[in-house]
Request: fold
Amino acid sequence: MLVYKNFFDDLIHLKNKDELINLFDKYNIKRRDRKKYPDLDFKIKEDEIDFLKNNGLITNENNLNESLPKSEKLTTLEKLFYAVLWKNGDLVKLKHIILGIYGEDTTRTVFNQFGKYLGNENELIIDQHVLRAYIFYKTGSIIKDINEGHYKLYLNDYKSWINDNNLFKKNKILIDELLFGIGKQMKSKK
Reply:
């Protein structure tokens, strides 16, 4: 646990992006696989979702229209993306992303927050590993199984912690990657 305390001591005293990047090597944190998770260099606006609704692709309940897979208007790329969502059982998760784009909260915090990130450049990506790392920073305890209650308790505080630190705010994706990596280490070593 000392290594994690040292990590956060280093993190909060860094002065620039290069020092942030050096933490990956110093603490043996794996970098994100850029082929599997390339940078998302786009945002999705509410009016783009409204357009999809107005054209019958998304329902008023923010789900994909059930007749969508029968449509002859889908491009091959749209069919492929739909097929992956279907195969992974993720069609129902889209609703939480859409509501996040609209800035609304749902019970599926990770997908909802991802939607908020896609819709608003000031928002953050969050997942269990990032939150585990942040909870350790706040409490000194490692929580193996993160649940919705943990998100409710710590998410807004985490957002403030990032946005109130200029270096963190300018390097949100890098901070996410660092916390994801250290939080994943915590889970595997508990």
